[in-house]
Amino acid sequence: MPEHPEDAMTDAAVAPRPHVATRRHHAARTHATSRPPRRTACRTVPRARLVVLVPAHDEEAALPTVLRAVRDQTYRPAHVVVVADRCTDGTAAVARAHGAHVLTTRDNADRKAGALNQSLAVLVDAPPDYVMVLDADTVIGPRFVETALSRLDADPRLGAASGIFLGPGAHGWLQRCQANEYTRYAAKIGSTGRVSVVTGTASVFRYAALRDVACARGSALPGRAGDVYDRGAITEDSELTLALRTRGWRLVAPPACVCRTELMPSTVALHRQRVRWYTGMLDNLRAYGLTRVTAGYHLQQLMLTVGTLTLWVLLALTVGAALLGTLAWQPFWLAVGAVFVVERLVTVWEGGSTARWISLLVLPELVYDLVLQRAYLHAWSYHLRGRSPQWGHLTVAHDRPCVGTAATGAARGEEE
């Protein structure tokens, strides 16, 4: 009999059940993209302790770098599973070539949430202590796993260790502005210690916390009983964050848990991504209502809405005054503006000289903010009409019965 249940799934259908930087650092990253450095001191993390799930849809180009980064961890996971979801390319073959197991979803109509629910259902009979969810286009830092496990081991009420995503290798003003946004978010986490969302790009979860969420679905939490991920949520990571917080689990984002994720190459792709993010959060907050956990998130959305409308009105008044010849520069408001410029400069300082210059120029980031605010207003239109934005796929050139008793569809595991 196989040691683990997923090892017995070859050609068999299993129904899922509910359930910054110096030159040295820059050189190291550049080398890592071509050939991973040899690490003489590393510890293997057994399957009983950690399982890494990599949901992937046509990711054969990105997977090699992602899986090499997992292999080069100071604490190297022994069990990595690429969840091939409706793939039409060589994703499965590439995964096997890099030493990963492959789990192929079946009849999945629920995108990433459905793929993860199917793969988590396979773990029910022999659950690990922790589960890492890693996007197939995200490269984690070398101490990610070691740091996450250390923090989770130290605090039994800690439900997840979230990654902190950065955007190195940016090209053009749009990607550089995205990188600046991510750098500021990392700085905010570092200064406040608050994790707004457990990122779906790379995070490590306590299995008991995921089981707790699955057991509460359909009663204390939105969603279908037994599902870890709410299949109806547009943004499964922010919804799971609300679920974990509602169940009383603590969340953390250690500074060493850094990861590199893809940056949107065009304003069209960025708009599509952010409309989905914003709409997803608005929908999630409507599903959870106003509670002690969600109050801060509701306030954040209120401030975003007020700030967006204020900026657009201010710009309209400024343009109107300029056209009428009544625009006058006031020293007081110039001083206030200077304070904001300094604040934006300080918060991207770790991003390097280019990030600082982009911030000092003001105009590029002002235009970028308008792009994001347009997406936010568009998201409100979807939310108010009860509609969901379309998904887009960015092609990269390069207790037990509760978890796993209600997901529809089936998964087929193929391991070599």
UniProtKB/TrEMBL annotation:
<keyword id="KW-0812">Transmembrane</keyword>
<feature type="region of interest" description="Disordered">
    <location>
        <begin position="18"/>
        <end position="40"/>
    </location>
</feature>
<keyword id="KW-1133">Transmembrane helix</keyword>
<dbReference type="Pfam" id="PF13641">
    <property type="entry name" value="Glyco_tranf_2_3"/>
</dbReference>
<keyword id="KW-0328">Glycosyltransferase</keyword>
<keyword id="KW-0808">Transferase</keyword>
<dbReference type="InterPro" id="IPR029044">
    <property type="entry name" value="Nucleotide-diphossugar_trans"/>
</dbReference>
<comment type="similarity">
    <text>Belongs to the glycosyltransferase 2 family.</text>
</comment>
<keyword id="KW-0472">Membrane</keyword>
<feature type="compositionally biased region" description="Basic residues">
    <location>
        <begin position="20"/>
        <end position="29"/>
    </location>
</feature>
<protein>
    <submittedName>
        <fullName>Uncharacterized protein</fullName>
    </submittedName>
</protein>
<feature type="transmembrane region" description="Helical">
    <location>
        <begin position="302"/>
        <end position="324"/>
    </location>
</feature>
